[in-house]
Please model this.
Amino acid sequence: MTSRLPDDFFFGAALSGPQTEGCWKKTGKLESVWDHWSQQDIDAFYNKVGSYVGNDMGNQYRGDYKIFHDLGLTSARTSMQWTRLIDQTGALNREGADFYHEMLAAAKEEGVDLFMNLYHFDMPYYMLERGGWEKRETVEAFAGYARTAFREFGQEVRCWFTFNEPIVEPENSYTEGNWIPFVHDFKRAVTVQYHIALAHALAVREFRLAQKEGLVRSDAKIGLINCFAPPYTKEDPSAADLEAVRMTDGLHNRWWLDLAADGTLPQDVIDTLAARDAAVPARPGDDELLSFGKVDWLGFNYYQPVRVQAPEADADEWGNPVFARPYIWPERRMNESRGWEIYPQGIYDFGMKIKREHPDLEFFISENGMGVEGEDAFRDESGVIQDDYRIDFVRDHLAWVAKAIEDGAKCVGYHYWAVIDNWSWNNAFKNRYGFVGVDLMHGYQRYYKKSAEWLRRVATTRVVE
Ligand code: BG6
Model:
């Protein structure tokens, strides 16, 4: 099957500072929660590979931007690290700023427009010690960091984002307790989620102020990136199944979509939270602050849908409210390495939801990708990894993107996660995502997999075969 994407549709790479830069002791960088956790308990990381090196991009970025250029990619999104740009007093760290100035200049030289996100799960450890997202002070500190970033890089960066996947920390760190600070308390998770929403809105307000003062480029724009997961349930759902969908969709998707599109939070979700003893810690005047949350465009990360049904119990073993339990669709196809369902049509379904509900809101696929364990097993006699599964994955998703565009969705581009293999949190380098591999045994050297040539063709022709 062949599909075509519009001539001005862009292709690029999705990455993040904490997963690529490394250089954790350089430029006066402070410890993030990931650096701290790696120091405290290296066994929590696959093969004992902690956060320190990323994929060594902090040393190799010139070569990496050349690779992007060679593959026909015209943009990439990364994130600044709060811990590199800002010191413990809240002031700009000049050495850290220069690190990013040099990176931006190197990207430009290769014709790569570097989009900049401000936060990718990388809380400074000293901020976590002060209470992290549970405290309003952190919200204000984040707004200060954003203000500094907009003003320092205003003439260099065109596309800004406040957060990547703001839903992940409330879930992973405060409900499921898998990530530092290992909490299982839904009430605290709701506080975190609410404060991140406020932090997003305050950062957008800082952006608008800088815009008014002419301190950012005239073509600059700001967005929010979330892993939107289209929700599905059984074919013949009960009222309780639909209620499970409402709250799952409400917390995961609508919360961030309403904030980004309208500067509001979904009232039905807020009411349900209050009724379940997890009220948001709202203060007078917050609604006005949240109204600044409206963005210029949206990043839509898509890996998998969420399938739910009514829960069996109202509360979990920690006494937290439970709104849904997983529904295993009998026809599901899995990426077994990651344990994630592969369902390309989800990208269309959610894209059309954005179109229906917010017809003027432009968006791009800001992440989509396939991480596979043990890719060495797929090397041919000449040593090249034959990753046809990756080509199939991307082709199938792009076909649905093309269809969404045909049907009126304002989807303007696609960033693959991660064009070059990178460090994946606790999984470190277990699952490889790249079209380009990284050889950990030989100085993090880059090498092309079979799919790289395929990507070059798609990115330069916009024909997907
Ligand atoms: C996204 C994140 O959720 O998925 C990335 O924005 C992450 O940071 C990517 O790396 C892939 O997930 P994982 O857990 O396999 O690295």
Observations:
- Residues 16, 19, 164-165, 227, 301, 338, 367, 371, 417, 424-425, 427, 431 surround 6-O-phosphono-beta-D-glucopyranose (CB under 6 Å).
